[in-house]
């Protein structure tokens, strides 16, 4: 049975809660109390938790970008769409490389997993490069590309289709009669 917390315990819990440096569950574990009890007390007493920046994992970026200043506006939809198209293109290239060297990948998997006791790791690796997996990836990439293109269109979908149809129709229009121009 949990022991009742004294006012000094709750003062420490409140300070940790308000700092926002650790999660509520961590605070609860540290003080041997449920996170629900802390949440109820915080709501009842009107504690306002400080907003802390989430710790993000550092990843390798293919194209370095300048960080945005806090006052700088978000990039335009066309810029975001172009980045999305680039990402889809890189992922398609990766899928192409996997598909092109499928036999070599299967041989490598066989060699790496030859000494394994069970076949679970080998089966998982084979599933990752399987036709089903590649087809699903291609379908998802196509859907993402379609969504990016539709979202980046400045007008609605029908207007974009009409504009494209007009561009194609302009290719087949007649040239018209010749015009005379005076050259000096």
Could you walk me through the main structural features you see in this protein, from its secondary elements to its overall organization?
With 184 residues, the protein is an all-alpha fold. Helices cover 61% and strands 0% of the residues. The chain has eight helices and no strands. The protein has helices at 7-19, 24-31, 35-45, 77-100, 102-112, 120-128, 131-152, 157-171. The longest helix has 24 residues, at 77-100. The termini are far apart.
Number of helices, where a helix is a run of at least 4 consecutive DSSP H or I residues: 8
The SSE string, one letter per element, is HHHHHHHH
Total count of strands: 0
Instruction: Identify low-pLDDT runs.
Output: none
Largest sheet: none
Which whole number gives the mean pLDDT? 77
Give the % helix. Answer: 55-70%
Work out the strand percent.
under 5%
Termini, distance in Å? 103 Å
Give the CA-based shape.
Answer: flat
Structural class label? mainly alpha
Radius of gyration, rounded?
A: 30 Å
């Amino acid at each position: 049975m949990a022991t009742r917390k004294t006012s000094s315990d709750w003062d420490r819990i409140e300070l940790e809660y308000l700092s926002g440096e650790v999660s509520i569950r961590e605070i609860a574990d540290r003080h041997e109390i449920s996170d629900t009890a802390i949440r109820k007390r915080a709501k009842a007493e009107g504690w306002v938790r400080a907003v802390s920046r989430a710790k993000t994992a550092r990843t390798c970026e293919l194209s370095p970008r300048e960080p945005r200043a806090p006052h700088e506006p978000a990039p335009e939809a066309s810029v975001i769409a172009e980045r999305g198209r680039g990402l889809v293109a890189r992922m398609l290239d990766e899928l192409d490389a996997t598909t092109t060297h499928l036999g070599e990948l299967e041989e490598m998997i066989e060699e790496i997993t030859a000494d394994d006791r069970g076949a679970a790791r080998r089966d998982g690796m084979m599933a990752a490069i399987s036709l089903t997996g590649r087809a699903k990836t291609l379908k998802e990439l196509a859907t993402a590309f379609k969504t990016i293109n539709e979202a980046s269109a400045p007008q609605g979908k029908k207007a974009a289709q009409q504009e494209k149809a007009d561009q194609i129709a302009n290719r087949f229009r007649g040239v018209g009669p010749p015009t005379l121009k005076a050259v000096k």
